[in-house]
Amino acid sequence: DAVVRPYAQNFVTEWGVNRITRDNWTAKFPSQLYETLFRFSKSDIPLLIASLELPAVLHFENRYQSNSYEAIHIVLRRLAAPCRWLDLSMEFDLRPQYLSIIFNGTVMLLFQKWGNFIRSKSVLVKNIILVFVFIES
User: Per residue in 9-28, pLDDT tens?
Assistant: First the structure.
Protein backbone atom coordinates (compact mmCIF):
# COMPACT_ATOMS: atom_id res chain seq x y z
CA ASP A 1 0.00 0.00 0.00
CA ALA A 2 1.21 3.47 -0.90
CA VAL A 3 0.27 6.76 0.67
CA VAL A 4 -1.02 9.14 -1.97
CA ARG A 5 -0.34 12.76 -1.16
CA PRO A 6 -2.95 15.37 -2.24
CA TYR A 7 -0.59 17.27 -4.55
CA ALA A 8 0.45 13.99 -6.19
CA GLN A 9 -3.13 13.43 -7.35
CA ASN A 10 -3.72 14.01 -11.02
CA PHE A 11 -6.97 15.99 -11.16
CA VAL A 12 -6.29 17.60 -14.52
CA THR A 13 -6.67 16.34 -18.06
CA GLU A 14 -3.72 15.84 -20.33
CA TRP A 15 -3.00 19.05 -22.24
CA GLY A 16 -5.62 20.97 -20.24
CA VAL A 17 -8.46 20.31 -22.67
CA ASN A 18 -11.06 21.50 -20.12
CA ARG A 19 -9.48 24.86 -19.33
CA ILE A 20 -11.61 28.00 -19.51
CA THR A 21 -11.55 29.81 -22.84
CA ARG A 22 -13.41 32.75 -24.31
CA ASP A 23 -15.66 30.26 -26.14
CA ASN A 24 -16.55 27.84 -23.32
CA TRP A 25 -16.63 29.94 -20.15
CA THR A 26 -20.42 30.38 -20.10
CA ALA A 27 -21.01 26.62 -20.17
CA LYS A 28 -18.24 25.71 -17.72
CA PHE A 29 -20.10 26.55 -14.49
CA PRO A 30 -23.85 26.09 -13.82
CA SER A 31 -25.89 29.29 -13.82
CA GLN A 32 -27.51 28.36 -10.50
CA LEU A 33 -24.12 28.38 -8.72
CA TYR A 34 -22.33 31.08 -10.70
CA GLU A 35 -22.94 34.05 -8.38
CA THR A 36 -22.16 31.92 -5.33
CA LEU A 37 -18.84 30.81 -6.81
CA PHE A 38 -17.71 34.14 -8.28
CA ARG A 39 -19.83 36.91 -6.63
CA PHE A 40 -20.67 38.27 -10.10
CA SER A 41 -23.29 37.32 -12.66
CA LYS A 42 -22.25 35.82 -15.99
CA SER A 43 -23.29 38.98 -17.82
CA ASP A 44 -20.83 41.01 -15.70
CA ILE A 45 -17.70 39.11 -16.74
CA PRO A 46 -17.05 40.63 -20.21
CA LEU A 47 -17.72 44.10 -18.76
CA LEU A 48 -15.38 43.39 -15.85
CA ILE A 49 -12.60 42.24 -18.19
CA ALA A 50 -13.02 45.33 -20.36
CA SER A 51 -13.22 47.70 -17.38
CA LEU A 52 -10.09 46.27 -15.78
CA GLU A 53 -8.37 46.40 -19.19
CA LEU A 54 -7.14 42.82 -18.98
CA PRO A 55 -5.28 41.74 -22.13
CA ALA A 56 -6.71 38.82 -24.12
CA VAL A 57 -3.61 36.73 -23.34
CA LEU A 58 -1.66 37.11 -20.11
CA HIS A 59 1.97 36.00 -19.91
CA PHE A 60 3.45 34.98 -16.56
CA GLU A 61 6.78 33.78 -15.25
CA ASN A 62 8.18 30.48 -16.53
CA ARG A 63 6.31 30.95 -19.82
CA TYR A 64 2.90 30.28 -18.29
CA GLN A 65 -0.01 31.74 -20.23
CA SER A 66 -3.65 32.29 -19.54
CA ASN A 67 -6.49 34.12 -21.20
CA SER A 68 -8.43 36.95 -19.60
CA TYR A 69 -11.52 34.81 -18.98
CA GLU A 70 -9.59 32.08 -17.21
CA ALA A 71 -7.52 34.56 -15.17
CA ILE A 72 -10.48 36.63 -13.96
CA HIS A 73 -12.41 33.47 -13.02
CA ILE A 74 -9.47 32.15 -10.99
CA VAL A 75 -9.09 35.49 -9.17
CA LEU A 76 -12.82 35.85 -8.47
CA ARG A 77 -13.20 32.23 -7.36
CA ARG A 78 -10.27 32.48 -4.99
CA LEU A 79 -11.51 35.77 -3.51
CA ALA A 80 -15.15 34.66 -3.21
CA ALA A 81 -14.57 32.03 -0.54
CA PRO A 82 -11.74 30.33 1.32
CA CYS A 83 -10.42 27.46 -0.74
CA ARG A 84 -7.18 25.63 -1.41
CA TRP A 85 -5.54 25.51 -4.81
CA LEU A 86 -5.99 21.76 -4.76
CA ASP A 87 -9.75 22.20 -4.34
CA LEU A 88 -9.84 24.41 -7.45
CA SER A 89 -7.64 22.16 -9.53
CA MET A 90 -10.47 20.07 -10.96
CA GLU A 91 -12.70 23.11 -11.56
CA PHE A 92 -10.13 24.87 -13.71
CA ASP A 93 -8.25 21.87 -15.12
CA LEU A 94 -4.96 23.27 -13.85
CA ARG A 95 -2.43 22.03 -11.34
CA PRO A 96 -2.28 23.97 -8.05
CA GLN A 97 1.09 25.52 -8.97
CA TYR A 98 -0.34 26.98 -12.20
CA LEU A 99 -3.43 28.30 -10.43
CA SER A 100 -1.20 30.08 -7.93
CA ILE A 101 0.96 31.63 -10.64
CA ILE A 102 -2.04 32.82 -12.64
CA PHE A 103 -3.75 34.26 -9.54
CA ASN A 104 -0.64 36.05 -8.26
CA GLY A 105 0.33 37.31 -11.71
CA THR A 106 -3.16 38.64 -12.42
CA VAL A 107 -3.45 40.35 -9.04
CA MET A 108 -0.01 41.95 -9.54
CA LEU A 109 -1.02 43.11 -13.02
CA LEU A 110 -4.21 44.65 -11.64
CA PHE A 111 -2.37 46.31 -8.79
CA GLN A 112 0.28 47.74 -11.14
CA LYS A 113 -2.46 49.11 -13.37
CA TRP A 114 -4.94 50.25 -10.71
CA GLY A 115 -2.87 50.52 -7.50
CA ASN A 116 -2.68 54.32 -7.46
CA PHE A 117 -6.43 54.58 -8.00
CA ILE A 118 -7.08 52.14 -5.15
CA ARG A 119 -4.70 53.98 -2.85
CA SER A 120 -6.27 57.37 -3.61
CA LYS A 121 -9.79 56.06 -2.94
CA SER A 122 -8.61 54.40 0.26
CA VAL A 123 -7.22 57.71 1.53
CA LEU A 124 -10.47 59.46 0.59
CA VAL A 125 -12.53 56.89 2.50
CA LYS A 126 -10.25 57.21 5.56
CA ASN A 127 -10.60 61.00 5.48
CA ILE A 128 -14.39 60.76 5.26
CA ILE A 129 -14.42 58.38 8.24
CA LEU A 130 -12.21 60.78 10.22
CA VAL A 131 -14.60 63.65 9.48
CA PHE A 132 -17.56 61.62 10.74
CA VAL A 133 -15.63 60.58 13.86
CA PHE A 134 -14.76 64.24 14.47
CA ILE A 135 -18.38 65.33 14.01
CA GLU A 136 -19.62 62.60 16.37
CA SER A 137 -17.21 63.64 19.17
Answer: 566 677 677 899 999 999 98
